[in-house]
């Protein structure tokens, strides 16, 4: 069992900065779990607490069935891959990958077998005699991952490992990490600020803000049923469109300073007439409709080949629409829009929680 369990974990730094605020979380055996959030939200601190590089001020951390609060990192049976690779420049790739095994005084033949097996998995067999300075960024990242694999740990910890790679390499490494998880069948905790990485890699995602876990769910649930306005705006590229306004009755509708949209009762949930809310709608749930009630002006048209992102102005408010490339829209064009009423989200303006 390589389950990771956190119970009411707290970490405070100097001057009362609450980096991790009473976080309780269960990461399942063999799960690929992603911790997602903006810079400064506490996600790396949470990972370092699991690794033993930081000590919690309160709460309990379990790896498997063991309470590890007072165990050193080397006693926790984990392997961590850092953002900056942390390779020894004077050692070859083979020596870098074998270093931790030599410290554990494993037999030479077993060390060679483990290193060569990991190198084959990662496609770096031909690089074992090179030094890190002779490698590309993607190759160095594979070596760092290989150094973790050879240890055969209960849990892998990844701290934004792809952030130093270019866009094309990141896409390729995401696929490699997914295949690696399927092959090794072990628990992975992966920290990132990139929601595309989180959505493509994670079986479940924990979204953090200000040291708190805001929502834990699978990627599609986070995308389609965000618990609050923060999650709604953080998940999705381009982000969800958000418009402040008020709920009105007779008929039930949302009214902003610039437009009115009829609402389905099920989406209003516990909302009440004259309640101040924020309406959210994703770019793909907006369409051009001659009978639409929302009047907009095209500002920018981004052609992406398989789709077009259209940046619009609705009165004084900005809006992004995703549409098919066949539609020809030019800056300055006036269009009428409809929102897919079944995919509208309503958030209370004060609490920012979703109403339904």
TrEMBL record:
UniProt-listed InterPro entries: AAA+_ATPase, ABC_transporter-like_ATP-bd, ABC_transporter-like_CS, ABC_transpr_MalK-like, ABC_transpr_MalK/UgpC-like, Mo/tungstate-bd_C_term_dom, NA-bd_OB-fold, P-loop_NTPase
GO biological process, one term: carbohydrate transport
Keyword terms of this UniProt record: ATP-binding, Cell membrane, Membrane, Nucleotide-binding, Translocase, Transport
Residue ranges constituting the ABC transporter domain according to the UniProt record: 4-235
Gene3D superfamilies per UniProt: 2.40.50.100, Nucleic acid-binding proteins (2.40.50.140), P-loop containing nucleotide triphosphate hydrolases (3.40.50.300)
PROSITE patterns according to UniProt: ABC_TRANSPORTER_1, ABC_TRANSPORTER_2
Pfam families given in the database record: ABC_tran, TOBE_2
GO CC, alphabetical: ATP-binding cassette (ABC) transporter complex, substrate-binding subunit-containing
GO molecular function list: ABC-type transporter activity; ATP binding; ATP hydrolysis activity
Protein name in UniProt: sn-glycerol-3-phosphate ABC transporter ATP-binding protein UgpC
Gene this chain is encoded by: ugpC
């Amino acid at each position: 069992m390589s389950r990771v369990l956190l119970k009411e974990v707290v970490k405070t730094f100097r001057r009362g900065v609450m980096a991790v605020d009473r976080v309780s979380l269960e990461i399942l055996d063999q799960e690929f779990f992603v911790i997602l959030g903006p810079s400064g939200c506490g996600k790396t601190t949470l990972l370092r607490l699991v690794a033993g590089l930081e000590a919690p001020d309160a709460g309990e951390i379990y790896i498997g069935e063991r309470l590890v609060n007072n165990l050193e990192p080397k006693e926790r049976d984990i392997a961590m891959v850092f953002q900056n690779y942390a390779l020894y420049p004077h050692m070859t790739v083979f020596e870098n990958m074998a270093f931790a095994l030599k410290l554990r005084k494993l037999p030479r033949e077993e060390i060679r077998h483990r290193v060569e097996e990991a190198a084959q998995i990662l496609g770096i067999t031909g690089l074992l005699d090179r030094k890190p300075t002779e490698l590309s960024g993607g190759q160095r990242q594979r070596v760092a991952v290989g150094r973790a694999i050879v240890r055969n740990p209960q849990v892998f910890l990844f701290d934004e490992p792809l952030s130093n790679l270019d866009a094309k390499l990141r896409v390729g490494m995401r696929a490699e990490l997914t295949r690696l998880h399927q092959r090794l069948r072990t628990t992975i905790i992966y920290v990132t600020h990139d929601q595309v990485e989180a959505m493509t890699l994670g079986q479940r995602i924990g979204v953090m803000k200000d040291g708190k876990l805001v929502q834990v769910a699978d990627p599609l649930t986070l995308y389609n049923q965000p618990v609050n306005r923060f999650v709604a705006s953080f998940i999705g590229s381009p982000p969800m469109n958000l418009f402040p306004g008020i709920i009105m009755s007779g008929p039930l509708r949302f009214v902003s300073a610039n437009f009115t949209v009829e609402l389905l009762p099920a989406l209003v949930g516990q909302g009440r007439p004259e309640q101040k809310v924020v309406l959210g709608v994703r770019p793909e749930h907006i369409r051009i409709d001659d009978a639409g009630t929302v009047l907009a002006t095209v500002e920018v048209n981004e052609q992406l080949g398989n789709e077009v992102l259209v940046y619009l102005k609705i009165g004084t408010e900005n809006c992004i629409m995703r549409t098919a490339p066949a539609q020809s829209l030019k800056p300055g064009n006036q269009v009428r829009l409809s929102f897919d009423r079944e995919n509208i989200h309503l958030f209370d303006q004060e609490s920012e929680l979703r109403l339904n």
